[in-house]
Amino acid sequence: MRIRYGETVKDFLLILAAAGILVVASTSPFFLINIARMLLKNNKRTKNGNIDEINLARSLAGLNKNKIIIVRRENNKFIVKLTEKGKKIIHEIQFHDMKIRPQKIWDKKWRVIVFDIPEKNRRQMRDAMRIKLKLLGFYQMQKSVWVYPYPCEKEIQLACEIYGINTFVNIITAERIYNDDFLLKYFKLVK
Q1: Domains (ranges, CATH) in the chain?
Q2: What is the pTM of this model?
Q3: pLDDT tens by residue, 165-189
Q4: Packing angle between helix 84-96 and helix 153-163, nearest 10 degrees?
Q5: Nearest alpha-carbon partner for 128 in 102, 157, 165
């Protein structure tokens, strides 16, 4: 799964996903350039001028052409919405950029991810899940048992959805793991 969009386009898609729909007055034939200007003005990463509005407008036109967004004109307004394909790409972007934020004060609960993903037909998904858990900083207690000290349910559910393994994964919240000194040391926590 490869994300092939620049950061500004990703930001636009995420804003569109959060808003659900964008409605813009159609006072200009340069609609996409006006959206690009708005994005560039509000995007701190682009204030150094690395991305110009014409290239961004072309990217937005490409999103429309590839049926990731729908741009239609209605009653002197432009309406921009995500398609189903666009929604899948949003999941990919969220998944690719996924990070789990540690709590400022640990709630002293362990999140245990347990999975039994069949070897037959789903080996790649199982291996991908292991790699993702490792990248997120989970500790591998056993082959298919991973531990993390902070809330991570939404992130794990998104990973399961992306990999199509929801029925094979369980998330357990445990107040105690016997002899967890090695976990406390690994995550640099004090009980």
Answers
A1: 7-96 (1.10.10.10), 110-186 (3.30.70.240)
A2: 0.62
A3: 889 999 999 999 998 999 999 999 9
A4: 130
A5: 165
